[in-house]
């Protein structure tokens, strides 16, 4: 029987402050060992079938295998991606009443996979709000040599840097930005399967190369506050994302398509 993943994971006020100040937070054991073993196997099998059936190759300058919208492949994947626990964490971090899913993807960094170059997720995501969050969850225990996620501390405060898709050009843009603003780079040294990071959509981030002999398998689910509207489609990546992840919604319209289910809604206490 599949774990329900509806128990609330409580966040402290200090953790919320850290998230807003630094643009990201690392949370341990969002899924326990039993939960991540079951769902990790489901995610791995689903992703590997996609990769093999479609003969996918690593993307983003050879950094990782990527495949998206896996929740539509099975009821089990749907249950994971729409888990109330994840939405509840985002609700607490953002202090909002309801949270919608944007999309989900696996990023499997193979042995020898290149560095994931600096970028901002909201370069891709056409959402007219800062209340947008990405969750990064490894489904295997990870060491530093496997290519751990790294963040540019407090970079979300500077908003849209008009970067690029993940590329050498985006890396140069953010290298210059980091040096100009004298920002600190924080790398998660190691983590266990079921641990998570959460980061704002404008937080610049990347990951190291995979120098190990193992695949670094990670699942990413992205969320936004209910009531968010579609933002400007000022590049081809945003045009594609609006089509495939926002149901073709246009700028100014509510981002409430059938693809963007509510994953968490605060329960109103009755007196």
Strand content: 15-25%
State the helicity in percent bands: 25-40%
End-to-end separation in angstroms reads 36 Å
Q: What is the number of helical segments per DSSP (H or I, 4+ residues)? A: 6
Tell me the major beta sheet: 7 strands, antiparallel
User: How would you classify the helix and strand content by structural class?
Assistant: alpha+beta
Choose one word for the global shape: globular
Rg, Cα atoms, Å: 17 Å
Secondary-structure element pattern, one letter each? HEHEHHEEEEHEEEEHE
At the first level of CATH, what is the class? Mainly Beta
The total strand number stands at: 11
What's the overall average pLDDT, rounded?
96
Give the name of the CATH superfamily: q2cbj1_9rhob like domain
Number of domains: 1
- The CATH architecture can be named as Sandwich
The low-confidence parts are: none
At CATH level 3, the topology is: Jelly Rolls
How would you sum up this structure, described in words?
Helix content is 27%, strand content 22%. The protein is built from six helices and eleven strands. The mean pLDDT is 96. The chain is of the alpha+beta class. The N and C termini lie far apart (36 Å). Strands 1, 2, 3, 5, 8, 10 and 11 form a seven-stranded antiparallel β-sheet that branches. A four-stranded antiparallel β-sheet has the order 4-9-6-7. The chain has a single domain (13-259), classed as q2cbj1_9rhob like domain (Jelly Rolls, Sandwich), CATH 2.60.120.
